[in-house]
Design a protein that fits this description.
The chain is an alpha/beta fold. The chain is about 35% helix and about 20% strand. It has 14 helices and 17 strands. α2 packs parallel to α10 and α7 runs parallel beside α9.
Length: about 375
């Protein structure tokens, strides 16, 4: 049985698995990965797939032999390969997939970050598999995350994943490159990423990949620091996924540095500056404190301060007591117009409804 603590997984698949020969997409390694994803979903585990491979999949469509590839050539290859990659994944599943293309700017911009979060939540709630990739067809150097290992870590934190699984072409982390050092020692568990761990990493030996073990360790450091366990496994071996489904360890486990929920609660309460406050009616207070519910516009009675969508605000009772801090899905101006309304009335009032929740339950931290 899959680790019972895992309710949401982000799995990252690299170019070397998508297009091993850089001649379009191949299912050589993807069949086992697709079966693992399908079985996770049957067990009630939500999955987000971060998939590289658009440039590699589209490389054969454009004749260009010089290296490195100019940015316009890579973007054109990505534009061709992205459709092939999505078609390949879609054909491997008997459920719907959705394409999410991101740049660094999308994740850095507060409004866009929140919209991405809302989209992913909605897809997961409707049992649709999100397939995330960097938008290589338009991203320039300054807009790029740079590699999908680090992108996957960002996505894992964004969606509050329990574990990030990074598929590699070796069994995990070794004390040295096992391809060049025969007596390299396998490292099954890493308690904390430090300089000694980075010293074990070598570069990528794949011409079609953008990351090697270094970027995987960077991703593990990002994810574990914010409460997400990280596994680096051999994605070329079906046995890796069989082991995980049996509840056995595969690859190298990087242990989370703190509880995921505690990390987010601390971030909400202590790192985010509040830009305003809202007052809740008694029903909303009870739902907030005792049911772990999201806050709807119907439960808001008053709005104070000037804040934008994506800002942190205090959630207060009628006496002004600060019960929680949360990230608001609406600006103060918009919330003044929709407070007290049922969710289905929001679009009629504002002309749009980006979210039925004013503050989603995943973005709320109670003060005690």
């Amino acid at each position: 049985m899959l680790n019972s603590a895992w309710r949401r997984i982000v799995i990252k698949v690299g170019s070397a698995l998508i297009s091993p020969d850089a001649k379009g997409c191949s299912t050589r390694y993807l069949l086992a990965i697709a079966r693992f994803i399908s079985e996770c979903r049957q067990l009630g585990v939500e999955v987000v797939l971060v998939s590289s491979g658009s440039v590699a999949a589209g490389r054969s469509a454009i004749a260009f032999s010089h290296h490195p590839l100019p940015i316009n050539i890579k973007q054109a290859m990505a534009a061709v390969g992205q459709t092939q990659m999505m078609a390949t994944w879609s054909h491997l599943f008997d459920f719907r997939c959705a394409q999410i293309l991101l740049t660094h700017d999308d994740l850095a911009d507060r409004r866009r970050y929140l919209n991405i979060d809302n989209t992913l939540r909605t897809l997961l709630a409707n049992q649709i598999l999100p397939v995330v990739n960097e938008n290589d067809s338009v991203a320039t150097a300054e807009l790029k995350v740079g590699d999908n290992d680090n992108l996957a870590a960002m996505v894992a934190v964004l969606v509050d994943a329990d574990v990030l699984i990074i598929c590699s072409d070796i069994d995990g982390l070794y004390s040295a490159n096992p391809r060049t050092t025969p007596d390299a020692r396998f490292i099954p568990r890493v308690e904390q990423v430090d300089a000694a761990i980075y010293a074990m990493a070598g570069g990528s030996h794949h011409a079609i990949g953008t990351g090697g073990m270094v970027t995987k360790i960077q991703a593990a450091e990002k994810a574990t620091r914010l409460g997400v366990d990280t596994l680096i496994i051999n994605g070329q071996k079906a046995e890796s996924f069989d082991a995980l489904l049996k509840g056995e360890q595969a690859g190298t486990l990087f242990v989370r540095q703190q509880d995921r929920l505690s990390a987010k609660k601390h971030w909400l309460l202590h790192s985010l500056k509040s830009h305003g406050s809202i007052v809740l009616d008694s029903g909303a207070v009870q739902a907030l404190l005792h049911k772990g519910a999201s806050l709807l516009a119907k439960g808001v009675t008053a709005v104070t301060g000037q804040f934008d969508k994506g800002d942190a605000i205090w959630l207060c009772d009628s006496g002004g007591k600060q019960l929680a801090k949360g990230i608001c899905q609406y600006s103060a101006t918009e919330l003044q117009l929709i407070k007290g309304l049922h969710s289905q009335q929001i679009a009629d009032t504002l002309g749009f409804c980006p979210s039925e929740e004013v503050v989603h339950r995943d973005d709320i931290a109670l003060t005690n």
